[in-house]
Structures are given as C-alpha cells and as structure tokens.
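Shipment paperwork, digital attachment
Item: protein structure file
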Amino acid sequence: MLAILRQELDSMVRVIFLVTLSPADRLHYINQTLNNEKWTLAGTRTQITDRQMVDFANTLYGWTRSVYKFGCAFIHLSVMADYNNSNPFLQLSISEQQDIKQHLHNYYQYPLSYNLSVATTGPYLLKVLQKVSSNLEYELQKL
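Attachment content:
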C-alpha cells in the first residue's frame, strides 16, 4: 500500500502541473514521458524537478507539499521488510515522524499522543490512499 501511495502522489503532482499548462506545453511533457526522457523546459535543457512541481501545486491547493512530504517519508520504509518485529518509523528522522503524525492528525484526526507504528497508522493509511487516489482521478478528468 505504501508503494502505491507514493506512486499516486507522484502522479498527482505531475497531473496538477500538466493541467495548468497550455496544450502545446502539455504535449511537450507528454512526449518526453512517452520517450522516457526527463522533463525539461521546452527548448532548453533545464530540468523540471519534483520539488518545483510540488511547490507549484502547493500554491494552487495548499495541501500538496504536506501530502508529498508525507509520501516521501515512506520511501525510507521500503527497506524495512519485517514490520512485525521492528518499527520502521524509528528509521525516519524526528522531523519526518512529526510531519507524518501532524498530517495524519490535521486531515484524519490521528491522535498526537499515539506513537507512530504500523499498527497505529495502518487504519489511517488506507484513508490517505483513498483520498490521494480520488484527488488524482479528479485531476486526470481535467486533462
């Protein structure tokens, strides 16, 4: 579920970025995607970074950076295969842990008194995935 959440977040940020572009610019990035090329500004070698797209999307919605940062924190969890015997959240920095806890609290009423663990976050992660997926679907319809 965490891998799919991260993938959905990446897709959502890209789609939000594409929706705001002119048809010609949108086609430029779609062609780069289909040719397995990194996104660059049209006519230049200047790459478009995830950070730029996240920051841009955040100016439109205000929640994008928080959700993306939340998803990025989970990249580090992928190396932890034995969730039952060790808490993968302890592999994250205190800042990343606080970001996850605060996001879950702000949007899903996760109790701030809870320690982050697979057991305490599991029921909330499904809600996050459903929300991100529905937002992605909404943005895709705009394309």
